[in-house]
Specification:
The protein is α/β, with parallel strands linked by helices. The chain folds into two domains: 212 residues, Class I glutamine amidotransferase (GATase) domain (Rossmann fold, 3-Layer(aba) Sandwich); 112 residues, Orthogonal Bundle (Arc Repressor Mutant, subunit A), CATH 1.10.10.60. It has 16 helices and eleven strands. The strands form three sheets. It has a six-stranded mixed beta sheet with strand order 3-2-6-7-11-10, with helices on both faces. Strands 1-5-4 form a three-stranded mixed beta sheet. Strands 8-9 form a two-stranded parallel ribbon. A hairpin with a 3-residue loop joins strand 10 and strand 11. Helix 3 runs parallel beside helix 7, helix 7 packs antiparallel against helix 8 and helix 11 crosses helix 12. It comes from Brevibacterium spongiae.
């Protein structure tokens, strides 16, 4: 096997250390966030690098003073699934002052988490730290008892095992990630990118998340869940794809009636066939897709404009401010007014 020893976090995490001093001074006035990422023997390089790449990009772009640190159970080097040895990483104490603790993956066999890791997760969660499990990283968090009674997601191949071991939680295959405020879980592999971008979006706003996504050349938001991958790959869209056309058409008309009937009519299809094709293509229903897009646009307007709540509700097609507030609170666990107040300070 090939072997490479990576002796410091900067070498593995990217070029964050090469930021110019002016950029660092600009960030000093912004709130600092520390993210502790757990590494273990057998982790893949991809899983370990995903949260570092996304969160370190926040700092590289000067958006906020975010710092990642990799730690293992005892501070010892770890050997990745590819055979590389990573040294120079921290011990578990690095999680004690973290704002977010990330379990970026877990062993493929889903083995129960050890007592020390379970206790660390429980202690940090009790301290107010956000705990995130990406892909199979959901397993240690569930083993720690932090997901009891919650809706969760993991890699689709592990749905059955997770449900069997923890019958007290609801495994949802319809989403790419679930933000439950203090605990966060994501679907398989590349969905970790979606999850980490969402955490950036939740803390810094849509504009910051879009900037990070643009620099990393990844989609700022993907629709649907894993069901589309369980049965078959997402179809390649062409200029003749009626779903691709209707998505573009609807995005420019969020304030209008976008019922299934109207969308199907615009696509020149009967409603039943349209819904079936839409779901197979996007992984979600037309109604859910429209709702997500309207909420995304509402967040953008709350972050970047002074339009009234009533005006935003109308512009985004919610019909009334009451309906808008209900949908917004359900999706983001806050009110539009409080959300605007949170991001007003960041302008």
């Amino acid at each position: 096997m090939a072997e490479i020893v990576i002796r410091d976090r900067a070498a593995f995490g990217g070029i964050a250390a090469s930021m110019d001093r002016e950029g660092q001074r600009n960030m000093s006035e912004k709130s600092a966030v520390k993210i502790a990422i757990f590494a273990f023997d057998g982790i893949t390089m991809f899983h370990l690098s995903v949260p570092q790449m996304v969160f370190d990009e926040v700092a590289r772009l000067g958006l906020a003073d975010w710092e990642t640190a990799v730690f293992s159970g005892d501070g010892s080097p770890v050997r990745t699934a590819e055979g590389y040895e990573i040294s120079g990483i921290a011990g578990p104490q690095t999680a004690s002052d973290a704002d977010i603790v990330v379990i970026p993956s877990w062993h493929r066999d889903g083995r129960p988490a050890g007592a020390e890791l379970r206790q660390l997760l429980v202690s940090e969660h009790a301290r107010g730290t956000t705990v995130a499990g990406l892909c199979l990283g959901t397993f240690p968090i569930a083993d720690a008892g932090l997901l009891t009674g919650r809706r969760v997601v993991t890699h689709w191949r592990a749905f059955e095992l997770l449900a069997e071991r923890h019958a007290d939680l609801c495994v949802d295959e319809s989403v790419l990630y679930i933000d439950d405020d203090d605990v966060f879980t994501s679907a398989g592999t590349a969905s970790g990118l979606d999850a980490c971008l969402h955490l950036v979006r939740a803390r810094l706003g849509a504009a910051a998340a879009n900037q990070v996504a643009r620099n990393l050349v990844i989609a700022p938001h993907r629709d649907g869940g894993q069901a589309q991958y369980i049965q078959r790959p997402l179809p390649t869209r062409t200029e003749d794809d009626p779903i691709a056309k209707i998505l573009a058409w609807a995005l420019n008309r969020l304030g209008e009636d976008l019922s299934v009937e109207r969308l199907a009519r615009e696509a020149h299809m009967i409603s039943r066939s349209f819904v079936r094709l839409f779901k197979s293509s996007t992984g979600t229903t037309p109604a859910a897709w429209v709702r997500y897009r309207r909420l995304d646009e509402a967040r953008r307007l709350l972050e970047s404009t002074d339009r009234s709540i009533d005006r935003i509700a109308a512009d985004c097609g919610f019909g009334s401010a009451t309906t808008f507030r209900q949908n917004f609170a359900e999706a983001f666990r806050t009110t539009p007014t409080d959300y605007r107040r949170q991001f007003a300070a960041k302008r």
